[in-house]
Amino acid sequence: MMPQTSIQPMQIVLAEPHSLVRRGLMQLLTEGFDPCVVHEVRDAQGLFDEISRVPPDLLVVDISLPGGAGMDILKDLHDRVGGAVPLIVTSDNPGPEFTRNVLLAGAHAVVLKERADEELLDAIEEVRKGCVHL
User: Higher pLDDT residue, 93 or 122?
Assistant: First the structure.
């Protein structure tokens, strides 16, 4: 009899303040990565509480979370989880300067929310391979 191998589900922390958007992103993630567990949070405090509780394999974070300033959140995340955990920032309207600043602050990718259904899973695959995704 062959021993069974257990595949550990990917632990994804999804930080998004808008419930409808969060549900859509959660659906994309759960359909795109099997097995995975998506931990949903709505604000900066919930994000930091969750990453203290569950070591994440991936972070998908809205840059405009209540309870924190965007770039400060990224700095705090980088201080807590380092650069080894892929961090994808979602935003409503990132311009070139915004994208540059977010990547310099430690994000691995920036995904426009209106294009998340087309780009999020590809961005995740790229950053998991070690590439920066714009």
Answer: 122
